[in-house]
Specification:
Elements (H helix, E strand, L loop, with lengths): L1 E2 L7 E2 L13 H17 L1 E5 L3 E18 L4 E10 H6 L2
Parallel strand pairs: 1-3, 2-4
Antiparallel strand pairs: 3-4, 4-5
């Protein structure tokens, strides 16, 4: 499981929209990305925080976006996974 913050009682997010933002140290981000990479290879992500957990099965292709703003001194990565079940139903 890719954990941002650990706690026992977590709400499973299965519908609607959800957004979470946090700040981490370099070491924490590196650990998070390594765990995420392991999940990507398996085709299923389980990510959680203190209060919530999301389990998501996905399929290829995975959309990766890189955005760089030299003036703002900002580099941003966005990774978009598509739900495996929706792709299978749409065939």
């Amino acid at each position: 499981m890719v954990e941002l913050i650990s706690r026992r009682d977590k709400k499973l997010i299965e519908s609607g929209e959800f957004e979470f933002e946090t700040h981490m140290s370099r070491d924490e981000v590196a650990k998070f990305l390594r765990a995420l990479a392991d999940h990507v290879e398996k085709g299923e992500i389980e990510v959680s925080s203190e209060d919530w957990i999301i389990k998501f099965r996905f399929t290829d292709p995975i959309e990766v976006e890189v955005e760089f703003d030299a003036d703002a001194k900002k580099l941003e990565f966005e990774i978009e996974f598509r739900d495996r079940r929706k792709v299978e139903v749409g065939r």
